TrEMBL record:
InterPro entries: GDP_Man_deHydtase (IPR006368), NAD(P)-bd_dom (IPR016040), NAD(P)-bd_dom_sf (IPR036291). This is GDP-mannose 4,6-dehydratase. It comes from the Bacteria. Catalyzes the conversion of GDP-D-mannose to GDP-4-dehydro-6-deoxy-D-mannose. Residues 5-313 form the NAD(P)-binding domain. It comes from Candidatus Roizmanbacteria bacterium RIFCSPLOWO2_01_FULL_40_42.
Length: 326
């Protein structure tokens, strides 16, 4: 039986990836930080909480990583752990760097020392591109120009992964994933803030929805589709980096319109209010991925259309509130 270690198992991507690996008969280890009461809601949502073996560790504590890699010696390591909320990275730049950048160096070093044949996946991000495109899209050859401490920390981790691959011959690769969402997306992210806010309005728990800029364009896909690309990257003969995206862009405003439409609420403009607190010091106006390489080499394609993604998220949040009121 193959075994895999997933960091960030309690986040959004971790549960979807764990579910996929369990279906392929993997033994899955999930790394969690020492909490007094860990939150397993996302794993509960997918019905896999009791099918994973949990190990305590922290990317900022290299000793814990050395112990985990030495004891588990995983065949595959998926590093999904991060301080991943872009908006918070300005106020928590040092913490973001320690987790997202130095933490990846700690993990790669532990693998090199105790399990050098492990295949390593690093969760890179489209935020690394920032303003780095003149073509209207971003692919593996687009230069990086990050616009946030989050994006900067991820660029460090990305190049450190490349460096370990080139310096030590390790199977280390990065998936440069564009925005991917789901019903278990963190509530602080704009897509989930929208779906949750619309659900609250639908069931009578709120009268308005506070948002920042509605004009930025993003390439949004479904997290459940994107974890398949992660898995496929580690099944290749040689490690390479891949952009994973739908190739379509939609504004935040389009997401809002579809969300209210899904809930059967007309005149969305009367519910949405602008709040300057949610506007970032430096915004990335347009991200659009070109995943031709992944489609050709991995045989991967996104399966979930944008309207279906929005519908899935809004309906899930409405159901959550309706179930609470039963």
């Amino acid at each position: 039986m193959a075994n895999a270690l997933i960091t960030g198992i309690l986040g959004q991507d971790g549960p979807y990836l764990a579910k996929l690996l369990l279906e392929k008969n993997y033994k899955v280890y999930g790394m969690i930080r020492r909490y007094s009461t860990p939150q397993f809601d996302n794993l509960d949502y997918l019905g896999i909480t009791n099918k994973i073996e949990y190990i305590e560790g922290d990317l900022t504590d290299d000793a814990s990583l050395l112990n985990i890699i030495k004891n588990v010696r995983p065949q595959e390591v998926y590093n999904l752990a991060a301080q991943s909320f872009v908006g918070s990275s300005w106020e928590q730049a040092k913490l973001t760097t320690e987790i997202n950048a130095v933490g990846v160096l700690n993990l790669l070093s532990a693998i090199k020392l105790f399990s050098p044949t492990s295949k390593f996946y690093q969760a890179s991000t489209s935020e690394m591109f920032g303003l780095g495109n003149d073509n209207g899209y971003q692919d593996e050859n687009t230069p990086f120009h990050p616009r946030s401490p989050y994006g900067i920390s991820k660029v460090y981790a990305h190049w450190m992964t490349v460096n370990f691959r080139e310096s030590y011959g390790m199977f280390a690769c990065s998936g440069i994933l564009f925005n991917h969402e789901s019903p278990i997306r963190g509530i602080q992210f704009v897509t989930r803030k929208i779906s949750d806010g619309v659900a609250k309005i639908k069931v009578g728990l709120a009268k308005d929805l506070l948002l920042g800029d509605l004009e930025p364009k993003r390439d949004w896909g479904f997290a459940g589709d994107y974890v398949e690309a992660m898995y496929k990257m580690l099944q290749q003969e040689k490690p390479e980096d891949f952009v994973v995206a739908t190739g379509e862009t939609h504004t935040v405003k389009e997401f809002v319109e579809l969300a209210f439409k899904t809930a059967g609420i007309d005149n969305w403009q009367s519910y949405v209010k602008s709040d300057p607190r949610f506007k970032r010091p430096a915004e990335v106006p347009h991200l659009q991925g070109k995943s031709d390489k992944a489609q050709k080499a991995l045989g991967w394609k996104p399966k979930t259309p944008f309207p279906d993604l929005v519908k899935m998220m809004v309906e899930a949040d409405i159901k959550r509130y309706q179930d609470k009121n039963k």
